[in-house]
Amino acid sequence: MKKSILLISYHFAPQNAIGAVRPTKLAKYLTRMGYDVTVLCGAGTSPVRDPMLARDLRELRDVHVIHERSLLRWWKTRGHKPEGPAALESRPILPQSTLSDAAMRERKAVQDAAKPTAAVATGKPLRAGAIKLKRLLFNALYLWLDDRADAAFARACMRKLFSLRRHYDVVLSTYGPLSAHTVARKAKQAGLADRWIADFRDEAAVPFSWQKRRLAHYVQDVRLNADAVTAVSAGCLQIMGLEAFGQVIHNGFDAEDLVGLAIPPKHSERLTFIHCGQMYGTQRDLSPFFHALRELIDEGAVDASRVALIYAGWDTGGFVSQATAAGLADCLKGYGFLPRDEALKLQKAAHVLLLAAWNYKDRQGNLPGKFLEYLMLDMPVLCCVTGDTPDSEIAGVMRRTRAGFCYEQANVAQDGIKLKAYVRELYAAFTETGSVPFSPDAAQIAAFGYAGVAEAFAGLVESV
Q: Left if phi > 0, otherwise alpha if psi is -120 to 50, otherwise beta: which for 49?
């Protein structure tokens, strides 16, 4: 008989959040493998739902949605905004180049909360000092509310677990927020589960440096109490100091997400490059691609009227500003936030998928979950990696899978020339044949399927 697994993740189907994909797919495929999977998850704070994850959810028999009671939940969900922002909305977020994805999301939420209100705008102009003080107060308030909400979710989870009166062979928790691992640790300590696997789909992070001591204590607590630690990349483990203890289990893709999707025809008039998702200000930088394209246009090798740059998502300010700085504003076409099925259709109608990542000496191993989704779309990927360190993890995976071309800022002398040649090759092939060259390694790509990812976790479940 297969073991029983308690999976704890705040983000889960049918939330339209990238953090919901990994835990949902794990629950789906572990269930198919015969494991008895119980899920405790949060309700989320957005009304937008992912129809593909909703379809996965129908396979799961034992999912408990925890509605924690907190002021932050009330703040975020009051009135529920429309499902998407106005098209082409620009949301510059964070200029810092050393923050993690989790820290950037947290800082963005803090910044959103600190925006001046209409009531303030109608009064006398605030001096710089007063504005700074106001933002500090909003930051402090948001962080306090966030901590209270996280603690409320943990308490609600434990109440639910005790009410279920069940025992589990393994508890598998996936970060973040912090409470996911907190609940798992308490479940093990209370004797509700025998073993604990702590998974990091992001490196644990905090938005402000003065919180680092607390973060270090949190990571050490996970290290001492978990029976196994997993993360999506080697760099993720390294930045947390867990490389000697943890195991890398990459994110993946689920080809079943494309089943039943109405795939549109490719654009025929323009060679179309597309980016869907967050840019995080200057953290994700596609400028090398934009400038290479601009140079080819200026040289007469590319006709600007036959190129389109499409983007969609909450945070499109970085994409627009980078393309505009290269003189490509006339090539831009933008969309607002889209449900994942609509985003997939938009991407399939394009020719080349754009990706941005980073690789610094103190922050290596960035392997965006978006890239794993790209692998199932059977399209070339053009990736730009910022940072001072060559031979990034994403570049290595792209070489193995032959998924496209990866430019690294740390190797600009060679990669700059290659990038320009690659764009020229794409354009020439499109104008001559209506398609672009692409010869991926199918076997290498298949290894990133979520069925294989779940098998790796099943191996841990059986061995811990």
A: beta
Which amino acid is located at 408 in the chain? E
Name the DSSP class of 117: P
CA dist., res. 310 & res. 354, Å (int): 10
Give me the sign of the Cα torsion angle 412, 414, 420, 423: negative
Work out how many domains the chain is built from and give that number: 3
Instruction: Confirm whether 41 is domain-assigned.
Output: yes
Q: What percent of the chain has pLDDT over 90?
A: 63
Classify each residue of 214-251 as buried b or exposed e, where b means 16 or more C-beta atoms within 10 Å of its C-beta. ebeebbeebbeebebbbbbbbbbbbbbebeeebbbbbb
Residue 33 and residue 37: Cα distance in Å, rounded? 10
The structure tokens listed for 329 are: 């504003």
Tokens matching residue 279: 């840019």
Q: Which residues pair with 193 in a beta bridge?
A: 168
The position carrying tokens 């959103």 is: 112
Kindly state whether residues 432 and 346 are assigned to the same domain: yes
Q: Within a domain: residue 83?
A: no
Distances from the Cα of 316 to the Cα of 121, 291, 323, angstroms: 26, 18, 11
User: Could you tell me the residue range of the domain that residue 440 belongs to?
Assistant: 256-444
| Confidence at 48, pLDDT banded by 50, 70, 90 | confident
Model pLDDT for residues 371-414, shown as the tens digit of each residue: 888 999 999 999 999 999 999 989 999 999 999 999 999 999 99
Distance separating alpha carbons of residues 266 and 310, to the nearest angstrom: 13
Beta strand spans in 57-156 (E): 63-66
Q: How far is CA 390 from CA 318, 353, 393, in A?
A: 23, 22, 9
Q: Which among 220, 227, 234, 240 is positioned nearest to 198, based on CA atoms?
A: 227
Q: Which of 151, 164, 140 is nearest to 62 (CA)?
A: 164
Read off the pLDDT of residues 153-193 as tens digits, 9 standing for 90 and up: 999 999 999 999 999 999 999 998 999 999 999 999 999 99
**For residue 140, is it within any domain?**
yes
Q: Count, in order, helices (H) and strands (E) of the chain.
A: 17, 13
Which range is least confidently modeled, 62-66, 129-133, 423-427? 129-133
Are 156 and 36 within one domain? yes
Q: Across residues 74-91, what is the average pLDDT? A: 49
Contact of 196 with 461, CB cutoff 8 Å: no
* CATH number of the domain bearing residue 243: 3.40.50.2000
Contact 59, 31 (CB under 8 A): yes
Range with the largest mean pLDDT of 70-84, 222-236, 353-367: 222-236
List C-alpha distances in Å: 153 to 11, 13, 61, 150, 337.
12, 17, 22, 5, 27
Q: Which helix (H) or strand (E) holds 440?
A: none
> How many of the other CB atoms lie within 10 Å of CB of 79?
4
